[in-house]
């Protein structure tokens, strides 16, 4: 029996809202970005946000496929991908116009570093940005989401009707290859066929071949949730697994906060083990430990933790809030520069944070209101259709 997707899972919305808060704190140029980045270990908010987004997609679109068929599901994925693409293009144009001009006026070195390729080759940057090839820092997350959304109908249909074993196996193999720079190999191979005017370093920091693993995993988990019966008991992990997860999580937490953001000082050859951009193996272990603990203690936390409507509101409007937080981060960089700039006063950091979060909540609230009104209009149209059809049938013929 498919899950009723009309009922929002508030705990997932709250978690996504929490991930958005953590990403905002990390991306805003304040002194809190480094100490509050990766607060639970060598795992960032990005990993949690990708998995949660894939889980929600798998759950919602699986239910849609069960109700309306594969074509309707694929069409819904395409519409979502186009919406994300429109957001990416809007952010790119904002960066190349407003932020570029503000950076030139204020002379902020941080902006010059951010859009250096665009300043050197504006036309190539614009055209390749429209094709999602050029992905400057901060704007390199949505392009991989678009690719994931476009690939998801094929993955879901295969998984729903032929099983997930093969998909998960291929996904793990691609993740493994990503640890040896599969993305660079693909880029160089494509460049040999048709020269790419964008340097590899400007195509985005995220190794898509590694991060696809989290998306596929979340898609599979969400699909399984959609097909689960309402009386299905929660997942129960063996005691040894829970204890192991606690140990790994504690080691990661202490390591992160004692050693710092650089896990292997003076030993750069070990850095790939915990690399964020390639989703290194030790980072995956740390993430899985936190995932096991979150799933194990979820029933207890759901019963005892108070609900935080603010986080739920942010999580329900994840795409507009995500875009808004990037706009705020770019504006802050253009106006006041990097957090490490000499002479930066604490009140500037407080002002950035104090303005940003109310704005994000306002964006989320407005988005929620617009969605509610659209849903009401659709419901009214559905109610009017049977009445109109009945009136047409009963009308006398001349």
From TrEMBL:
Record's keyword terms, sorted: Membrane, Transmembrane, Transmembrane helix
Keyword Transmembrane part of the UniProt annotation: yes
Record-linked InterPro entries: UCP028704_OpgC
Membrane-spanning residues: 42-63, 84-105, 125-151, 163-188, 208-228, 240-259, 279-301, 313-334, 346-368
UniProt protein name: OpgC domain-containing protein
Taxonomic lineage: Bacteria, Pseudomonadati, Pseudomonadota, Betaproteobacteria, Burkholderiales
Gene label: opgC
């Amino acid at each position: 029996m498919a899950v009723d997707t009309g009922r929002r899972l508030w705990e997932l919305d709250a978690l996504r809202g929490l991930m958005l808060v953590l990403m905002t704190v990390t991306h805003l140029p304040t002194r809190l970005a480094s100490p509050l980045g990766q607060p639970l270990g060598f795992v960032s908010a990005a990993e949690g946000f990708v998995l949660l987004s894939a889980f929600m997609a798998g759950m919602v679109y699986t239910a849609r496929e069960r109700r309306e068929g594969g074509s309707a599901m694929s069409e819904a994925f395409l519409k979502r991908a186009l919406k994300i693409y429109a957001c990416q293009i809007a952010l790119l144009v904002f960066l190349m116009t407003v932020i570029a001009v503000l950076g030139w006026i204020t002379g902020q070195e941080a902006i010059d570093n951010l859009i250096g390729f665009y300043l050197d080759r504006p036309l190539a940057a614009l055209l390749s940005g429209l094709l999602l090839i050029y992905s400057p820092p901060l704007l390199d997350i949505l392009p991989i989401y678009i690719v994931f959304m476009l690939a998801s109908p094929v993955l879901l249909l295969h998984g729903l009707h032929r099983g997930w074993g093969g998909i998960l196996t291929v996904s793990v193999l691609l993740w493994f290859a990503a640890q040896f720079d599969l993305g660079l190999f693909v880029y160089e191979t494509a460049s040999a066929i048709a020269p790419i005017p964008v340097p590899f370093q400007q195509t985005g920091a995220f190794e898509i071949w590694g991060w696809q693993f989290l998306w596929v995993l979340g898609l599979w988990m969400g699909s399984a949730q959609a097909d689960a019966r309402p009386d299905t008991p929660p997942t129960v992990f063996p005691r040894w697994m829970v204890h192991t997860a606690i140990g790994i999580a504690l080691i990661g937490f202490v390591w992160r906060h004692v050693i710092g953001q650089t896990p292997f000082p003076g030993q750069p050859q070990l850095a790939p083990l915990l690399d964020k951009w390639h989703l290194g193996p030790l980072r995956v272990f740390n993430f899985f430990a936190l995932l096991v603990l979150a799933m194990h203690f979820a029933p207890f936390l759901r019963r005892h933790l108070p609900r935080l409507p603010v986080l739920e509101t942010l999580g329900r409007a994840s795409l507009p809030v995500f875009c808004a937080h990037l706009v705020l981060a770019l504006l802050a960089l253009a106006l006041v520069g990097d957090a490490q700039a000499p002479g930066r006063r604490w009140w500037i950091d407080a002002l950035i944070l104090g303005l940003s979060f109310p704005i994000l909540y306002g964006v989320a609230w407005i988005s929620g209101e617009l969605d509610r009104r659209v849903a009401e209009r659709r419901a009214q149209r559905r109610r009017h259709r049977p009445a109109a059809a009945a009136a047409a049938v009963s009308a006398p013929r001349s």
